[in-house]
Amino acid sequence: MILNRVPISSFSSLSSPSSFSRLSSSNLIPSIARQTRLSSPHSPTSILSRISYHHNNLSPSSPRYCSSSSKHHPPTPPDLRTMAEKDIKKYLEQSHDRIFENNRRWAAEKKEKNPDFFAHLSAGQNPEYLWIGCADSRIPAEQITGLEPGEAFIHRNIANLVCNTDLNVMSVINYAVNHLGVKHIVVCGHYGCGGVKAAMTPQDLGILNPWLRNIRDVYRLHEKELDAISDQETRYRRLVELNVIEQCRNVIKSADVQKSYAKNKFPIVHGWVFGFNDGLLKDLDIDFEAVLRDIQKIYNLVD
């Protein structure tokens, strides 16, 4: 298994192929080192998000720290550690109020377009899709798929994992399949996944260790293929894909999916990967019926 040690605070910003070259630049590494001293090196927050300030060249000098006027880019947050206490308080109030401003605008627009929108929404949900995705803030499932509220049941966690010991995701699958009757289950990963990159790094990541071990197990299962890929970025992207494929297999292993498919011929399980560079979804073309037959040689849970 070929692993490379990278700065532990770099995982959250790996969103493009050029990220790897940026991580080794001389002007970035010293600033990472300075920040590392501010909090525990094994803090999950510092591991997955601390570096984000450096890529945005943030400045707290603007008197208004939040704005809901931009339709193309999210507001750039300031580095609160460099701000006076009164400015921190002002920023937190503004970032809180911005959500309610956006909500009121959204509700008004929906009602203007369809006066019965909220009456239909309050009547109940009947989603076609269960979406199991990464918790990364840049991948809003409904927005990138063009779905409306009520069309997708959503579950998200770090690196879009489906672990049979995770009662959260297993409860979601149970409810989506047996009570909502979803027709499709989508496991969606993304290139530039910080959780996958962290799993490729031989370091003790504290509380993240047991969670990321599931991705390391994916590497172990496909070690020969991955080690044969000499380019680190290409290997990283392939592990993202293989992780999605293995999580799809974990979904198919569940009794809820197997029993529902035997009775109803749905749901079908799909594996997709989102790309930040072009905003497009890649279908990994999971052959659901073939995978199901293969899995049921050992994991057959249908009476």
Question: How would you characterize the overall build of this protein?
Answer:
By secondary structure, the chain is an alpha/beta fold. It contains 14 helices and 5 strands. The protein has helices spanning 19-23, 29-36, 44-49, 52-56, 85-113, 117-122, 141-145, 167-178, 194-199, 209-221, 223-227, 232-252, 255-264, 288-295; strands spanning 129-134, 152-157, 184-190, 268-274, 281-283. A 5-stranded mixed β-sheet has the order 2-1-3-4-5. Strand 1, helix 7 (141-145) and strand 2 form a beta-alpha-beta unit. The protein is globular. 27% of the residues are buried.
Question: How would you summarize the topology of this molecule?
Answer:
Blueprint: H1 19-23, H2 29-36, H3 44-49, H4 52-56, H5 85-113, H6 117-122, E1 129-134, H7 141-145, E2 152-157, H8 167-178, E3 184-190, H9 194-199, H10 209-221, H11 223-227, H12 232-252, H13 255-264, E4 268-274, E5 281-283, H14 288-295
Parallel strand pairs: 1-2, 1-3, 3-4
Antiparallel strand pairs: 4-5
Q: How many individual β-strands?
A: 5
Major sheet size, sense and barrel closure: 5 strands, mixed
Counting DSSP H or I runs of 4 or more residues, the number of helices is 14
Rg is 21 Å
Euclidean distance between termini CA atoms: 40 Å
User: Rough shape?
Assistant: globular
Element-by-element helix/strand order = HHHHHHEHEHEHHHHHEEH
Largest beta sheet: strand ordering: 2-1-3-4-5
The percent range for helix content is 40-55%
Briefly note the structural class of the backbone: alpha/beta
In round numbers, the mean pLDDT is 83
Q: Estimate the strand proportion.
A: 5-15%
Q: Which blocks of ≥5 consecutive residues have pLDDT under 50?
A: 5-70
